[in-house]
Amino acid sequence: MAGSHSREKVIVIGAGIIGVCAANALVDEGFSVEIIDPVEPGSPGQCSYGNAGGLSPGSCIPNSMPGIAAQVPGMLLDPDGPIGLRLLDLPHALPWLLRFLANSRLSRVKRISDAMIALNRLTLLCYEPLVKEAGCEDLIVHRGQLFAYENPNGPAGSTLSIAMRRERGVKVDILDDAQMRELEPAISPAYRAGVFLPEQGQCPNPGRLVAAIARLAADKGAVFTRQNVRALVLEQGRVTGVATEAGVVAADKAVIAAGAFSAPFARQVGVRVPLISERGYHIMLPNADTGLKINVNAAERKFVAAPMEGGLRLSGTVEFARPETAPNWRRAEILVRQAAHMFPDADLSGVERWMGNRPGTPDSIPVIETAPRHDNVILAFGHGHQGLMGGSVTGRLVAELAVGRTTSIDLSHFRSSRF
């Protein structure tokens, strides 16, 4: 019952989309909540800010699919390819990449897909009361999601992913050239066929969504502190607070939701997760008045074009590098060329570039659990490319774990012991 935990204080480490959704759910349960992060919620310094905006309850296709092992070398060697890896970062990335490829076995892929759909199918259901309460219902748009192929036979080559979606209850429409052009006339005639998911949604400004949900939590009494968390404070086997640059903040419970920076905190409570920064780049084209209405995934080129409040956003490249490494803006220039290909008549002037650190696990699903050896610590990180999608659901799950209630979904797939 809300209010029954009013004497218990929870510290949430991380004020991205996972952290602010968790803060709201925890306050609603009656906890006293403090969110600690050096970065302003919804600002460009957060991974959540740069998201492509997909809110897809039908998202269930892992990044590592059968056949990926044969494709990765070509992707890495292609200067305009979707994956970047600097030679100096190979020792850092190789163990993770080997685990990633091991997850491409079909039997494993189907189990991962089941976990993804279990989490993601609730995304809109959990966001709708949040955005209504926050007064930003305009940030959830129901227009579907389009995968566009240049090869007119492209959908025929995606039979596995289409079948996986349909087996999990996702509505999928196969479009020929004329049907795709009628649905989304903004894209180039170079794209000849499509796969349309009509039940999916999108957010036209992920940064504003994070900021609005953070303000909602603050209005309910949550406290936001702009500090770096240096470590958890443990006494007699329990976490009693966190150490920041300004001193120790006491707490009865802690939530680790620091995205790509979560692993050191998890290690303090005996949890080792193969977490890597899948660094993502995006470009914003403020003058590209294309008329695009739907989030479009370029199926062969592996990028997403999304209509946003500030213009057209293209995102989707992955770079394996340590978070502290300087941005490689050549990755953003690739997206400018992709924009020119998909929208040949668009005004590409005034390009704005962004880079952020996605928290990637080798199996495309996050860690969500109570720490096995520390029952007052909750882990909620590793959402990779789908943090915005998983934020509302994960926030609810964090609160359920905090009060000891049966969770809305089975969390056995999300335990750290799977690694």
Write the layout of secondary structure elements.
Elements: E1 9-13, H1 17-28, E2 32-36, E3 54-55, H2 68-77, E4 83-85, H3 90-102, H4 106-120, H5 123-134, E5 145-149, H6 159-167, E6 173-175, H7 177-183, E7 193-197, E8 201-202, H8 206-219, E9 223-225, E10 229-235, E11 238-244, E12 247-250, E13 253-256, H9 263-268, E14 276-285, E15 295-298, E16 303-308, E17 311-320, H10 330-342, E18 352-360, E19 367-370, E20 377-381, H11 387-403
Parallel strand pairs: 1-2, 1-13, 2-9, 4-17, 5-15, 13-20
Antiparallel strand pairs: 3-8, 5-7, 6-7, 10-11, 11-12, 14-17, 14-18, 15-16, 16-17, 19-20
Helix pairs in contact: 1-8, 1-11, 5-8, 5-11
Please give a structural write-up:
The protein is α/β, with parallel strands linked by helices and 419 residues long. Helices cover 31% and strands 25% of the residues. It is built from 11 helices and 20 strands. The protein has helices at residues 17-28, 68-77, 90-102, 106-120, 123-134, 159-167, 177-183, 206-219, 263-268, 330-342, 387-403; strands at 9-13, 32-36, 54-55, 83-85, 145-149, 173-175, 193-197, 201-202, 223-225, 229-235, 238-244, 247-250, 253-256, 276-285, 295-298, 303-308, 311-320, 352-360, 367-370, 377-381. The strands form 4 sheets. Strands 4, 5, 6, 7, 14, 15, 16, 17 and 18 form a 9-stranded mixed sheet that branches. Helix 5 packs across helix 11 (387-403). The chain is globular and about 65 Å long. It comes from Shinella sedimenti.
